[in-house]
Write a structure and sequence with these properties.
Length: about 110
C-alpha cells in the first residue's frame, strides 16, 4: 500500500549514506534479496498461520512483527548520523555561472 511505496527509496537513501561506496553493490544486493525472500516466504507462512490459528491471527502476528522490526530499526538507527549535507541553491549556482561568464567576456 501507501507505506510500501516509501520503503524502497528510504532503504536506498539509508544504504547510500551508511555503506561505503565500494560496498554499496553488495549492500543493495543483500537488501533486494531479502525483500524477494520475504515476498516468497511471507505468503507461505501466512497461509500456514491462517490455516492453523485462523486468518485473523495472520494480521495480529504481522502487526506484532512489524512493530518489533520498527523498534529495532529505530534503536539501530539512533546512533547513525543521517543529516544531509547542505545543498546549494540551484538559482545561486546559475547566477554565479552567469557572473563568471560576464567577467570572463568583459575582462
Amino acid at each position: 500500500g501507501l507505506a510500501t511505496g516509501a520503503i524502497r527509496p528510504v532503504t536506498s537513501s539509508i544504504l547510500t549514506r551508511i555503506v561505503a561506496e565500494e560496498d554499496r553493490g553488495k549492500a543493495f544486493g543483500i537488501a533486494t534479496s531479502a525483500t524477494a525472500f520475504g515476498w516468497a516466504l511471507g505468503p507461505m507462512i501466512g497461509a500456514y498461520l491462517g490455516a492453523t490459528w485462523g486468518f485473523r491471527s495472520v494480521f495480529f502476528i504481522t502487526a506484532a512483527f512489524f512493530t518489533l522490526v520498527s523498534l529495532w530499526t529505530w534503536r539501530a538507527m539512533a546512533s547513525i548520523d543521517l543529516a544531509e549535507e547542505a545543498r546549494r541553491d540551484w538559482r545561486a549556482v546559475v547566477r554565479q555561472r552567469l557572473a563568471y561568464r560576464r567577467e570572463r567576456n568583459n575582462g
